[in-house]
Amino acid sequence: MPSLHHHPLDPHSRFIRLVLNEIGLDVDLVEEKPWEREERFLHLNPAGLLPVLVEDGGLVVPGVSAIAEYLDEAHGAGLGEHRLLSLDTATRVETRRLADWFLTKFHAEVSDYLVTEKILKRFMPEDAGGGAPDTSAIRAAKTNVRYHLRYLGYLARRRNWLAGDRLSYADLAAAAQLSVVDYLGDVPWAEDDTAKDWYARIKSRPSFRPLLNEMVRGTTPSSTYANLDF
Fold it and tell me: Taking every annotated instance into account, which residue ranges of this chain make up the domain GST C-terminal (predicted)?
């Protein structure tokens, strides 16, 4: 069986897990602590970043974008109308644009700060950046998430799904990022009902259930995290 090297609260790993669940591919989950920079893991991805997919035949696919493209190339044609990266050129462009928005911009401005400062620093050694949380980084992330939520609501009001008529990589990328912020209770859902309704719709999908059942040691998820009617 293929294996996915991941961390439970890494939103990029969560995105690929959602994709795998949507297309019906089973994998063995191998939890990694990328800050430890183990030689074994660096052989898989010298960049030291998650996630990494390893196929049965030994093919190593490192990094979130490479894995997403690989999965579409290898399995997309067999999904028909449920393909997560549309065959329509304009829709593909928009899907990639929005997926990159959430995987890169949202991650850099919101989820990476919150997960690192609130959770990961507790487990990281000091020489790898561990220690007390940076409260200024947390405040910045809590401010930034409001603007991203507003943009998400704008997209959801204009379309059935974020990039068009069908569920796509854009929705799964956005939901993966929001899921870790929601775990920490830092999404101001009351500020945009459309964004909230979109998220409730996507986290009610079977592909989301494994994520909602996970907990990180020492950190209790927010009351909205696993609640489908929040």
Answer: 88-222
